[in-house]
Amino acid sequence: MALLSGGLDSATVLAIARSEGYELHALSFSYGQRHIVELDAARRVASAIGVADHRIAKIDLRVFGGSALTGDFAVPKGRTADEMSHDIPITYVPARNTIFLSFALAWAEVLGSSDIFIGVNALDYSGYPDCRPEFIAAFEKMANLATKAGVEGRQALVVHTPLIALTKAEIIRKGIALGVDYGLTSSCYDPSASGEPCGECDSCLLRRKGFRENGIEDPLRYRASSF
């Protein structure tokens, strides 16, 4: 099964899992995010790639806040690559990947699956601590101690992170080779009500950089003000 946000990375991971012969179950989250339009993208991607089941879990991380994605903070715009590589940005959602992976672990146990795919990346990313290999390794170890299936020896969970050491340009190149339609995806942290990406948040800038380094045009149409 795969975590599917509707963004570029998760769409690529879903395509990778398909190419490796896995039966696809996709899990998305409505967690109070300001960029809720990503769930429409997740539905489009799940349909296009072909999943056996796509579920959207509803939780509300706005009760905690602490992030520009779930609270009343401005999303940073126009940051340089150097700025992104330093402090953890306000778009970090506290414990988000831990929460998401815990939900995925529960569903994997019900499905009898030992494989979870997640599109975390430790190179072209915005400095999130829960995108690092150390975190994934620690979660995987914990997960194998946490379930009935694990204790009974029926499940040896593996958290697959095929993008962990790839640049955004390499991710896009891999996705294109696998037939991913990136026009279906949504990466922006601060899209318009109609879903147009801002073109200036960290996620948009990293995405645009990846397409530019491949010498191809991003199929998404950005707001005119972002050019």
Overview of the structural elements:
With 227 residues, this protein is mainly alpha-helical. It has a single domain, classed as Rossmann fold, CATH 3.40.50.620. Helices cover 37% and strands 9% of the residues. The protein is built from 8 helices and 5 strands. It has helices at residues 8-19, 38-49, 81-84, 96-111, 133-146, 148-151, 168-177, 202-213, and strands spanning 2-3, 25-30, 53-58, 115-117, 158-160. It has a 3-stranded parallel β-sheet, sandwiched between helices. It starts with a strand and ends in a 14-residue tail after the last helix. The model has no long low-confidence stretch (mean pLDDT 93).
List the helices and strands and how they pair.
Blueprint: E1 2-3, H1 8-19, E2 25-30, H2 38-49, E3 53-58, H3 81-84, H4 96-111, E4 115-117, H5 133-146, H6 148-151, E5 158-160, H7 168-177, H8 202-213
Parallel strand pairs: 1-2, 2-3, 4-5
Helix pairs in contact: 1-2, 1-7, 7-8
